[in-house]
Input
Amino acid sequence: MTPTRQDALMALAAFGVGVVLLVAGAREVKPGVPLELFLVPLAVTCTGVAIRRRRPVTAFVIGVAALAADATIGPSLGTAVVFTDNIYAACLYGPRKLLTVLLRVGPVWALAMGVAAGLHNHDWGWGAVIAFQGGLIIVMPVTTAAIIRNHRDHARQATLMAELDRKAAITAERTRMARELHDLVANHFSAIAIQSSAVLSRTDLDARSVQEIMASIRENSVQGMAEMRGMIGLLRAEGEAETLRPSLSEVGDLVKRSGMTAKVDVRGTPRDLPPAVDLAAYRIVQESLTNALKHGAAPVSIAIDYRPDELALTIDNPVTDRPRELPGARAGLIGMRERAGLLGGTFEAGPCERGWRVSAVLAT
Output
């Protein structure tokens, strides 16, 4: 049912209730005033109910006019009750300025009605009754509309904040996924490009060496595709998906796939790490090997130190003066520093005695 149809049915129902009240005698009887005359202001206020959402201010204006006319000939209870909806709708659906004005004028209006009735009848008890009735007809609908309107405004603001939080979470997740894609693609394809260049540029390699290099290239391709499929599966999953998460314990396989000569030195007692720390440590080592492939030389030294409350990584590699053959996105060091920072750790990278050093400490 549309709002317009709902309002029309409410108007018909209000008119029916008003007629019942008139027939039951809920009006002030004056000589020479027929019952049918009270139907006119009642019908006008019910017309305001029919247009309460489309024309709330118009409904309020014709309601005031109808209530004044009804008070002149009566008044009657039915018209007064229907008028409460006119003023309520004007405050709820109309401009906020009208609500503010009625919140200030309504109590004064009701009090003025009581004073006027007390002076006219020389009975202040009767004036208090009229003031109370005026409060019910004017103040209560306005106050109710103000409460509901404020509640809707707060709900709308909460919805807006929730949407902003959702968009921020999506942006953060996209940034994380972009960093993951950069790390896994850069490592695998850098290894493939460098090993392929070696096969193409050197003519002194025997068949066995060529076969070993081609096997490493194939392994990097297969592993890269597997990780890409896992990430795509995560993006397509409606709920939480189980994905293959790289682990620091797989550093040996990572070094083998890279084709670099590297020495891995594990200190302390290896233990299970929190998933975020485990993944960050793996990616830092992976990105360091990628940088060594692009800009450095073998051998690479990887030190993994399991401390009581933290994990320390140190990756050293010599640096050569050969020109860069592979373009970089300049996001590797930034990504490693962000990973360490998000886990409350520290990250440093720069020249050292051996050439270039990457050092990270992650809280566990």
Summary: Residues 124-201 form the longest helix (78 residues).
